[in-house]
Amino acid sequence: MSARAIWKGQLLLGKHEVPVKLYSAVKDQAVHFHLLHAKDLTPVEQRIVRKDNGREVPKEAQRKALPLDDGRAVILEPDELEKLEPASDRTIHVLRFVPREALGDQWFDRPYYLGPDDDGGAYFALANALGASDRVGIARWVMRDKRYLGALSVADGYLGLTTLRRAEQVMAVPALRPDKARTPSDAEVKLAEQLIESITGAFEPEQWQNEYRERLHELIAAKAKGTKLRLVAAKPKEATGDLAESLRASLAATKGKKVA
Amino acid sequence: MPDEKLPAAAVRPFWSGTITFGLVSIPVELVAAVGSRRKSMKLVDEQGHPLGRRYWCPKDDKVLDNDELVRGYETESGKMVVITDEEFAAAAPEKSRDIELKRFVPLDAIPPFFFERPYFLAPDERAGKAYALLAQTMARSGKAGIGSFVMRGHEYLVAILADNGILRADVLRYADELRTPATIGLPKPRKADAGLVRALAKEIDALGKPALDPAEMEDLEAESLRKLAQQKAKSGKGVIAIEDLESPDDESGGSAEVIDLMEVLRKSLGAKAATARAATASSTTQPAPAGKATSTKTPAKKVAAKKVAAKKAPGKKAQARKSA
After folding, report:
1. Does residue B8 carry a pLDDT above 50?
2. Which residue of B has its CA nearest to A3?
3. Which residues of A touch B60 (CB under 8 A)?
4. A159 and A94 in a common domain
5. Per-residue pLDDT averaged across B240-265, rounded?
6. B111 vs chain A: nearest CA distance in angstroms?
7. Most confident region among A49-58, A250-259, B74-83, B191-200 by mean pLDDT
8. Considering its fold, how many domains does chain A have in total?
9. Is A64 within 8 Å of B43 when comparing Cβ atoms?
10. What is the C-alpha R_g of chain A?
11. Which of A85, A112, A227, B137 has the fewest Cβ atoms surrounding its Cβ within 10 A?
């Protein structure tokens, strides 16, 4: 089963042009539900209404307003917004290459694969060169009247393009140091390190199954047949009291032997 | 990561539970770690009256409250099976409360394609030392803990990692949610021309820089929108007061308890005021309630009857998560 490309263009790197197709790397696996009116199970609709009187407002009478910083907002008319749409040159512009660790997890939004749109000569040469460099490219392009920012990377010998969040969306946290009563002792940190070390392994994504999705399907099947379900509620856990004690006991459990 | 960008002042906690590793448990609250884009616009009518998205019963011809809604699954035979909130939770009782970290992995071993959405984990006041302990230990070892939890009818795989003493939960995609070059049907890699590889490697080197340029990461769309809006504001055209405005892509107008993330973190860590410059949220970014976080995907949702993923359905608590 193969997927369809959602966009075609060229990747521009210096004076080299690489013809590419863009494919979503994500596949929807969610279990989908309808929202129903509880009373008689009528499927509900979503409508846009005026907040003050609840009256429905049709699409053509809806406008968008951009808030300013001073408690006001400005209504932008559809024709004004249209004028702001960027022109598409069907080109992925690579702006720079940075070390891989320059991009933290918070930046990554949606992953895509790039595929060759010709015999693949330039495509696989670029995958080769980029794969050997330990860098990722920062790229911009316009797709369907929208600007995108992305990271060009190599996965399994193929080029990937992951859209990135914008700088103002990525929130940095200031360093907060806990007070003394909440600062763990060196001994506790050491124990925790041992505990974490004892359950450290490779990242093997196939090992993590969405069990809940399967159980949900079973539950639906059972209910459809009219089977009565037994409901079990979760018990809340207590916060850990004696930290060092819990760590030692956990270590002992993972090692299968008693720690003094 | 730019230094000046501070967390938005107000965020909505939308899941609380316990992180466990070994026998250690840490009560936490999940809050959004991604702000809304500055280009987020609010929905109004032609005169500027605030609009909102509401669930509507076509039969009774009226707006419905969230507690009048249930979720139903349509079987292949066309039968509608209703699943209650209690049943959703009961399908995985332990997971609706706990994130058990069963395995730790080197953080850089997780490929970027897996990262879906980051959240901060704010320690509950009962968390005590355990929160700081996990944060310190993971920061020192460069590791992330992997676990999963269930929220509103959906199971999330997460990597828990430490950032500056704060724990973050990154929602990961499951392996079966990712396509591969083979399933897409990309052609087999072919041998590349060595000369071309060298030439491209040179181009990569020529554009090689040690770090990101914040200017390149900015929201150009927001920039052009602001310019237009400010220009219009000067002429006085289309100016309205902000009150009760809702983004076009909000799920619904439900209001939820809003907390100040930094206040929570500082309180529960008992952190010193010396590091408290975060208290004053930057003036340029507006508060970002959790639910408004992503708005990049579907600007115009269908207003007609639509299928709703379980995870998107309204919960009893905060209207938080949009899509995962």
Report:
1. no
2. B184
3. 37, 42
4. yes
5. 54
6. 8
7. B191-200
8. 2
9. yes
10. 27
11. A227
Hey, are the CB atoms on A61 and B303 less than 8 Å from each other? no
Domain of A133 in residue numbering reads as: 7-28+86-167
**Whether residues A258 and A141 fall in one domain:** no
A71 touches chain B (CB under 8 A): yes
Question: Length of chain A, please?
Answer: 260
Domain presence at residue A22: yes
Out of A167, A190, A224, a domain closes at: A167
Confidence at B237, pLDDT banded by 50, 70, 90: confident
pLDDT of B276-312, one tens digit each? Answer: 333 333 333 333 333 333 333 333 333 333 333 333 3
User: Residues of A with CB below 8 A from B108's CB?
Assistant: 100-101
- Domain co-membership, A191 together with A245: yes
Handedness of CA A162, A165, A166, A167 (dihedral sign): negative
Asked whether the beta carbons of residue B22 and residue A249 sit closer than 8 angstroms, the reply is yes
> Per the domain annotation, does A65 fall within a domain?
no
Taking an 8 Å cut-off on Cβ atoms, the answer to whether A61 and B238 are in contact is: no
Best CA proximity match to B135, nearest among A189, A108, A18: A189
- Give the Å distances, CA to CA, from A260 to A245, A248, A254: 11, 8, 15
Q: Concatenate the DSSP letters of all residues of B187-254 into one string.
A: PPP-PPPHHHHHHHHHHHHHTB-SS--GGGGS-HHHHHHHHHHHHHHHHTTTEEE-SS-B-TT-S---
Contact status, residue B120 vs residue B21, Cβ threshold 8 Å: no
Residues of B in contact with A2 (CB under 8 A): 183-185
Mean pLDDT of B102-130: 88
Give the mean model confidence (pLDDT) for residues A151-178. 86
Residue A69 lies in a domain: no
Residue B97 has which token pair?
């409360």
Q: Two tokens at A131? A: 């794969």
Do A18 and A101 lie in one domain? The reply is yes
- CA A174/CA B281 separation, integer angstroms: 12
pLDDT for A232 beyond 90: no
Nearest to residue A96, comparing CAs of B214, B207, B205?
A: B207
What's the topology of domain B10-180+247-312?
A: Ku70; Chain: A; Domain 2 (2.40.290)
Instruction: Specify if A226 maps to a domain.
Output: no
Banded pLDDT at B240 (limits 50, 70, 90): confident
Ordered alpha helix ranges (H), chain B: 85-90, 129-141, 181-184, 194-206, 220-235, 261-269
